[in-house]
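Researcher: Please translate sequence to structure tokens.
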Amino acid sequence: MRDTGFPRADAENDFLRARRRQVLARLANWLRREPDDVNIMLPFHEVVEALGYVGEQRIGPRVITLDSIVGSVDRGRDFDRRFRPTSGRVRARWERLALAARRGENIPPIEVYRVGELHFIIDGHHRVSVAHTLGMSTTEAHITEVRTRLNPSGIRYRGDLIVKDYRRLFLERVPLTGEARASIALSDPWHYAMLGEAGEAWGFRLMQDEGKFLDRATVARRWYENEYRPVVNMLRQADLIGERTEAEAYLWVAAERYRLIRTHRWDDDVIDALRSARRR
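Model: Translation complete:
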């Protein structure tokens, strides 16, 4: 729709255009049978809880990209993921801000939390919505940076938080670091709980064998170096990983090994039994 040259009328048209886009986006998602959370803003508190809160610090005003704003502290129902209004409830304030923007008036910066490279609005939902609709790509924001135990990379939808939450719990039980920590990847969140059980059980048997207590960090390091990594290397040589991740392959064969042979050892007989089981 072309501008009329009358800022107030154009601001009204801006809102109607944003609402129409929101309705069309919902329809497109329904036709594509996409998950319900595709168009929902990420809730800040759920994200931080899943990643594990460490601390925060105020870093002041910065210019940020609008596309980096993915969630909110509240007001999750008034706007969708792209900050298009979901109803006419916000229309009056929205149009006042759109009118001010069109007249070139000064609009104060928004306030956001930063988690990794993601931003979550504290104050300024209407301003971001108007900026999106008017085709802007950046905005000024007062930023508070939040540090978390896990990196937020990979979070796109609300459903991704479940995987992050289970991964955080796994790393609390089996506190791997560095390359070992990065190498563990599972697509099913429940598998992190199963892998945690496997790591703890291995550590318990290790302490029984050595007759002494070992802390979690020591058990995690030795489990990875003496159990997980050697087993993964054997599976790779035996071509038993397939399309799984290394962690998924380890979890599968660890369960199959015990079911087939009732043992916790690894040798050629175990590998042959697993290969036969896979063919069946």
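Researcher: Any highlights?
Model: The mean pLDDT is 86.
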